[in-house]
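This section describes the prediction task in plain terms. A model, or a person checking by hand, is given the sequence of a single protein chain and must write out its three-dimensional structure as a string of tokens. No templates, partner chains or ligands are provided. The sample shown here is typical of the held-out split.
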Amino acid sequence: MSGERLAAAVGVSDTAFDFDRKYRYLVPTDSHSRALPGVRVIVPFGKGNRKRMGVILFTEVIPAEKAAEYKLISAFADTEPVIKGEQLSLLFLLKDYTLCTYYEAFKTLIPPGLSVNFTRRYRVAQPKPDDVISLTAQKLYSEIIAAKSVAEQQRRIEAAFDTEDSDAARELADKGYIESYEDFRRRVKDETVKMVRLTEGYLSSPEAYNVTPKQRLAMEMLQREGTAAIREIEYVCGVTASVVRNMEENGVAELYEYEVIHTPDVHETVSPDEITLNEDQQRAFDGISSMISAGKADAALLYGVTGSGKTLVFAKLIKYTIDIGRNVLMLVPEISLTPQTVNRFTALFGDTVSVMHSGLPLSVRLNEYKRIKAGGSRIVIGTRSAVFAPLDNIGLIIVDEEGERTYKSESSPRYNAKDIAGQRCITHKGVLLLASATPSIETYYMTQKGRCRLFKLPHRYSESGMPAVDIIDMCGTGRIFSERLVCEVNENLARGEQSILLLNRRGYNTYMVCSDCKEPLVCPNCSVPVTYHKANNRIMCHYCGFSEEMTGVCPKCGSARLRRTGMGTQKLEEELREFFPDARILRMDADTTYSRYAYDKRFMEFGEGKYDIMVGTQMIAKGLDFPNVTLVGVLNADKSLFSGDFRSYERTFSLITQVVGRSGRGDKCGRALIQTLVPDHYVINLAAMQNYEAFYEQEAAMRKALLYPPFCDICVIGFSSPIEKNAMNGSRVFAALIKESHGKTDKCIPLKMLGPSKCEIERINGKYRYRIILKCRNNSDFREFISDVRKKAAAMRELSGVSVYIDINGDIGA
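The expected answer:
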């Protein structure tokens, strides 16, 4: 490139959104082959040229005379791209759709185990002959080079910089006696094994080497097998590791490291051909499989009542997709659903299944990522982040329980996995299959408008039919359990059948009030009551994690007369043990499932009949299949109806419908009891009847009248500061800037602004919170508009010290 230089556009880490852009850096002339998009680099950043990690977004050729305008890339962290192709496209998509930074998008695409840290280290260099240094520096240099090893030299140099010898150390660095370099450390190292193979020299002239009889045994094995691990040679040939080392010293063999990528153990196998579909399932399979075979990007909703056998349709569709040479990605909303789902599909499809979710150890997640990238997996199952799995040739993406809020990330980048899945289907010309017994209003609306094909499973797969559901009025009773629920649980215990009780609140008491000053015990960091946990006798905040021992004294007036009210799953478990002393009770909530394999182990034990009653939060409500469960009880069913979010009715309907559907999934009839203080509420009644279509009609009509999704998009702009006045003023200035900018734009950007106002929970983790809600149309013009407003606001002093986030299609609740 005579008269030209190579430059790289780099997304730099730890940059604020307002300063995030494609920063150009000059590529060293000896590193052109390494400067590829997706490679991480170290670059000098800002006025102080502090070293930052970055990722190359693309490269370009610039005139040589412009080279002086660019800083030089300091070092390369990777020998090959970490992401490329489709993943690079997803990086730009995340940047555009979620208004995050380039490096935030990059980190979202890779597993945590691939993260790299770097530290500046020093080593002895070769000084120029004419370099003259002081006596103090000469003495230090002599001490350094006298060290017995390179590692010891390095320790002495680094120690010198931290002691009174620092001036001498800097002199040595300035004069070239020692040099600095960047040392890169992966968060999780590759798992490797030492392998042995014969050298080219020996293979071409074996007669030139003298070998011992033991070495001859190892060499014959290597000639036969080509390569083997040291441990394998020791075992098969009956020799020690020293024999292999001597072979290496003599030039007969060479050692190298081989990266180990594990495949999962498969304990039982079932053929997908053994699955029999009923008429409704077969109709859905035929329609969706024809969409897959068409080889075009498309979308469908599989809407089926609880227990209708959607998983069986998934299995047949996965087999069909694999058989035509394409791959499958399946998303589930909760880690708790992953074990059952994975067990089903590994039994059907063996070690071609990979699993990705945040509950796995970093090393396991990294291994699965590499196995997928290397083409060792045909099917990937996981939670939200699995949507970025480096799977190629995708013919089908299944999003199970598609209406769940867990598919939406609550931290930057604030993406929705369903949107990413749709984009990947466009890229691969595959089919996006959304599935649920309670689809989101937005998804069902798309089917009504013809943007998404609808397939229905209106009946249960088993012959037992839907459970019989009764609504119990708890108003004025003051009781935890109705007499009817106690009676039904006792009958189940007598028959050896299992029961599930749902209470969507963990802890023991949900809040405590002082009987003297009438003040509740509130978290010191948040404007929410603390929850009492009897198991460890502590009061805890479920928002910021605050925790302290329960003293039994009011922090405001010193009174010891504290009254505990409200009920969480811990108290419910205790009450159950009093009502049913002989019952074996399993509690499933965030407090009992913190260990890595808790979900798998506990659900398996419940399925094996080791427990009679399962009590838990929403994690037990969806996707689980236990044939011996014939009774479901819903306690405080109306708790989530009035949460202040326009989706509260939808979520309550979904939660009740889904947990009721856990009953009667085998060959026995199921029953469900819904305990509530508002027995006449239409959401409770429609959920009891499992009547989604009627609920959709009511909910869609209300949202249309009030202009909420799917009839518009929602953009939430949040402001937080330790000083309430700053958060309030910042939100007001931002709102004024939106109005001003909207009035000046020549583009048609529909916009309706609500607020600014306090968030429902006004203080979390020591920060006061305000927000603006925009009803808008989420398109490129709107995203460009709101991004420009944010950049303008960053320069205003009223926003100094105020954290701002933008969440498109986010929640407007707490």
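For orientation: The radius of gyration is 32 Å.
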